[in-house]
RNA sequence: GCGCUUGUAGCUCAGCAGGAUAGAGCGACCGCCUCCUAAGCGGUAGGUCAUCGGUUCGAUUCCGAUCAAGCGCACCA
């Protein structure tokens, strides 16, 4: 039910047609505090039209409005404040949530259209860092929110599994590595070789020539190079999967850079056919000056292709394969220019669907104010952060709830939940400096706070099993106390929140919402005895159940689990 | 130099399409468990919303300029 409509109707009638409905609707706003009502109509704009003081206009409107559908309508200064009928609202909202369960908030915005999401995309032979976490959890959450609004997300892990770094890696492995070492601890050993390579090639530039030679061999299909490449790739993927399992993230495709090797010639010849390719300083470029962009480098002086060539091939492949209605790239904001170029080149090719490509940028994670760098060995290993978080969660459980069953499982849900939630609770674009204590905090505005609130509500429902709710219309869910009102208003706004989150590709909208809902319910919980056996018991249980349900669904949209007990 | 992003309490951040006393969390200080999980609830302290202009009845919110920070700016991805 649209409660704003009720207010518009009332105002339209009171104003006797002097203002159009759409103008009234646009003017209505949400008061800052619920003490000022649920909707407010400011009379300022009318002051000029009617040539009267807004305060007087407001009180006149208030006296004319049919109060029948509201608890109260009153003029406060230049505003007309509307207080909704709490009992009716409460009954409607709670019945709807209990009836719809986890599908509460579902809506059809996408008509089941395909949306590809380029996300995570770690580099083979390098560990997954906190930077990849951002892309992974933001992409994962956007996928879930898209699904809830009836899009069909396709999660693509565009692995960095090709490029000159493999030449370096093979050379480093041949120089310093052994098979036994790599097998024992693949990612860390491979990283060690890689970092050492970059240290030593400063003084021994000839190493770079060797590396280039190895990459050339790899491209030409040299058996040893290919064997090593395949081996590095599969070992890396194995260890990536362990982390993705911890995070609970799955992918629909692992087609990475190597996958597009044989698909770039077509891109180049397309560009040639359209006469877009020019030579500049020995390289092949597409001029983008009419877009106010730097030229896109398609081929290097030595004829080798570049990043954008591969992404062009990937974009075209995805359009052909999935016929997407949107194509998202969850990639750090430092690559903004790259995606502008990508879209511009596609546009030049006459591909109108380039407008459906959206770069979803996010802010940088730094450590001690410095940018993370694999080459410099300055990395924060996601796996270690997750393990730390789980260990800390376990410790917390031993202190606070030592009798809990499934301690290990809950510790994992809480620890991992804390890390994911921390990443999603703020706007994507904000930079943040990594602080382990902050990431694994369990108090205040954190994932575990929301999980805890959910667990508390579930605990109440367990204790009231003898009075289990039927959800039938005959049950009365009419609450009208001030304490529950904020909770009810928040519950009602869930679908609007989902809508906003999907429009802005912004999981933080959902995370913030879950914090608000949890906070308002905790307040209610502290002031109201839910299990008191009186005539409103059923209604209060319906509220607790609705809160648990919406909190769980909010967390699910973020990719965070909601344990029943913790 | 050009482009993108950001600038709100000591720290981390909210503030949705401009509107009624600018809100949380953390940190500090002080309260609340014979009562549904205290991973909780409440209180106190703390802000010229970077600066200056403009639009408007009204600007933290929109526009412009300035200052500051981060990130980019052709043969890495």
UniProtKB/TrEMBL annotation:
Keywords: Aminoacyl-tRNA synthetase, ATP-binding, Cytoplasm, Ligase, Nucleotide-binding, Protein biosynthesis
One Gene Ontology term from the biological process aspect of the record: arginyl-tRNA aminoacylation
KW Transmembrane helix (keyword) present: no
Residue numbers covered by motif 'HIGH' region: 122-132
Reactions catalysed according to its record: tRNA(Arg) + L-arginine + ATP = L-arginyl-tRNA(Arg) + AMP + diphosphate
EC class name: ligase
Homology family: Belongs to the class-I aminoacyl-tRNA synthetase family.
Official protein name in the record: Arginine--tRNA ligase
